Amino acid sequence: MGSLLRTGEVAKLCGVTPDAVLKWIKKGKLPATRTAGGHYRVSREDCVALGLCDSNGDDPVAASAERAGGGGAAQRCWEYFGGPGAPPESCLNCLVYQARAQYCYRLAELGKKAGHGHEFCKTDCMDCPFYRACHGMATTVLVITRDEALTRRLEKGVDAEKVSLRFARSGYESSTLIGTFRPAVVVMDSELPEVREGSLLDSIVNDDRIPGVKVFIASRDRDEEAVGSRAVLTLAAPITAERIEQLAASVAAGGSRAAGDAA
Q1: pTM
Q2: Domain coverage including residue 108
């Protein structure tokens, strides 16, 4: 066996976060030994053999696609946020798009002087839905509801390794929360007047802190007519933990492809 690496060195070698490396180890996906002090050590050969990085230390596109759950060719950031077809106009002058770069978060370190447009980079990469999807991290989901029973059911039922879940009781609370929690998915309960009126939907969709966010309305029977005219996908209430996990997995796998799964 070759030299053993610290988890931070493995993270750098494979282009992932140290937390992702620890997750691989704890799930048994990556063999590791422990030092007398309790620290993990991993062989480079095991990383290469498992496809987490190639022999030159670069994480391959195929491994990225597998971590994102998409299968086949991995998506680029403009495809993830913009969906199929032409990229958003604001991406055309970005170095990431011009170079057709697979890993925008690597070029992000160079900053705007190098031509990285930072169109979707409103927070650190660790909080970006695309970055989290590429690295197998939990998808961020915000549920806006006043239903305490629903909140408790989702908190207990959702797998925290798949979904990082937060709750807000109003548009004001959600706006405050978005300042520190960047959701890839927002689910709104039609019970809220501001959801039925459309004002909350407009606020979320136009919030430049979360460009590309996928928004769904959980429509209760009595609210179908009120929310039916909104240009947004609806879910049948009550929302279940399984449905939240399905939405999160769909978004992680292909961004806008979630739209085809939620009608």
Answers
A1: 0.61
A2: 77-123
